[in-house]
Amino acid sequence: MATLQISSSSLFRYFFLTLCLFAIPSLSSDSDPLQDFCVGDLKASPSINGFPCKSSVSASDFFFSGLGGPLNTSNANGVSVAPANVLTFPGLNTLGLSMNNVEFAPGGVNPPHSHPRATEAGIVIEGSVFVGFLTTNNTLFSKVLNAGEMFVVPRGLVHFQWNVGKVKARLITSFNSQLPGSAVLPTTLFGSNPTIPNAVLTKTFRTDDVTVNKLKSKFAV
């Protein structure tokens, strides 16, 4: 009977591939902490997994009241966001989560944006909100949600929220990152510093310099 022979180099390659496959899930969100907590020292420079730990902590480091409202929605989009992330609540440092309070005036829009470092889950607290996200093959998944209903947006995908009711609306959202980041498409494209060359934008949007300059004027910092 023939005997299957496996070389040591083949075994090494198999072991290395298996190790890589097991390691991939650990990259799906912030790294796991190695101690009970690490309240961030915001005066120090952040590292790859957050800020250095404060040398002395107190009970107040683990509680946060900044998600309350009402928020001021008197702006062009009719929306305001109160974040609870590592920059506003250092107790979240290295814990891999954060939250937002999002409030909308009637008709207010949280414009298309993405969170490059996190999946987002949210619940409607009051009002009626049209929530949608787009996949990488340009499919739109959307639904009007009412108080008590929940949504999820996969990491990095473009999404938006729109208050379709006649009264104010409010969401509470959560993220599997202490600092999920936000790339707001209109501001990113037309309000960058330095600005994206008009030639790129006119070609991309199949328009002209007049239109591009008008849009840039609305988002100039």
TrEMBL record:
Stored InterPro entries: Cupin_1, Germin
Binding site for oxalate: 100, 110, 115, 120
SMART domains per UniProt: Cupin_1 (SM00835)
Disulfide bridges in this chain: 38-53
Signal sequence, start to end: 1-31
Annotated localization: Secreted, Extracellular space, Apoplast
GO MF annotation list: manganese ion binding
Pfam families named among the record's database cross-references: Cupin_1
Top-level taxon: Eukaryota
Residues given in the record as Mn(2+) binding sites: 113, 115, 120, 159
Keywords: Apoplast, Disulfide bond, Glycoprotein, Manganese, Metal-binding, Secreted, Signal
Domain (Cupin type-1): residue spans on this chain: 65-213
GO cellular component entries: apoplast
Family membership: Belongs to the germin family.
Entry function: May play a role in plant defense. Probably has no oxalate oxidase activity even if the active site is conserved.
Protein name per UniProt: RmlC-like cupin domain superfamily
